[in-house]
Amino acid sequence: MKREASEVLAATKAPLAPTVGIVAGEASGDLLGSLLMRAVQEAGLPAEFSGVAGPRMQARGARSLFPMETLAVRGYVEALANLRQILAIRRQLKRQFLAERPRLFIGVDAPDFNLALESSLRRAGVPTVHFVSPSVWAWRRGRIRKIRRAVSHMLLIFPFEEAIYREAGIPATYVGHPLAYALPERPDRKAARARLGLNAGGEYLLLMPGSRQGELEHLADTFIEAARLMHRRRPTLRFLVPLVSRETQLRFETALYRLQAQDLPIRILFGHAHDAMQAADAAVIASGTATLEAALLGCPHVITYKVPWLTYQIMRRQAYLPYIGLPNILAGRPVVPELVQRQAEPETLADAALRLLEDGAGRREMLDAFEALRRTLRRDTPRLIAEALRPFLA
After folding, report:
1. 3-state secondary structure of 125
2. Would 183 be classed as within a structural domain?
3. 195 and 149 belong to one structural domain
């Protein structure tokens, strides 16, 4: 049975008195939050972090009052199932932060959760920074008004966002993309395979059906059936599946047993996604930050996504761009194949992935686009983050 937010908070023995309140809502936010924390710490700025954090942020010293997995929900329909618990967590955080009054609150992505919290805290005099702009350039442009009320300063990770925030009169700093700074410029496949204990001369395909339990619910079966088809056509092909939590690992393993696919050469990894991206020859990836990570690490891939019909209809009507994948949005053209909803079937995914293994020219063109993207996004991100936060913390 799920515990109420108040029970979780009451069970936390030490009092919450952070210098910085912080909330990340999913695996990608945990990674970005840990990079931000590292920038603050290496700049020597005084900060104790507390709020909602994943394992990477906790390893950097953040104290998490609630499980990050509770907030990791994508889509309108899916959010309804957890709405009561999510709202309870937000109320508890609001009360706690208003009582303790941290010097700064930082919302890491998760705009549907964080912007409302930021708005309440800012009205009460707590400065708020939001790290990673909501994609107002892609859909739901009306959110810019909510952002103006909620955010003292926005940290931007894409260069074209500067003009949007300047026009809206919202203080903002382009800091480059933290992943473009942090990930290796020249990924080493041989070293990555050695770290994972893989055959140096083998052929590996990466499967990433999502970091949220809801994503696996909609995509795990499709990915497994696609792997079955690919293995029939290419018997030497091996599969890597990095998963971010025990819950997502259990869901994927349950799907394997249900589909009687235990004999497939699938290796499940607990984490190690970046090593797997460097080690793999190609990938099939659920739309999200992982697609950009794969691009920055030079892993050719196919982007896919599946959500409930109603969620898709709502999102489609509010979208302004023809693409869903970050590499395509940033390139302004279809660099990476996208297979969404009814197109996201085992046969189409298998065909698209095998083409990446077989088509040398198409693969090279994709890798060249990834290299151009890396050059565009790479900046001295830690220094820029620290300088933007210094006025709030020094």
Report:
1. coil
2. no
3. no
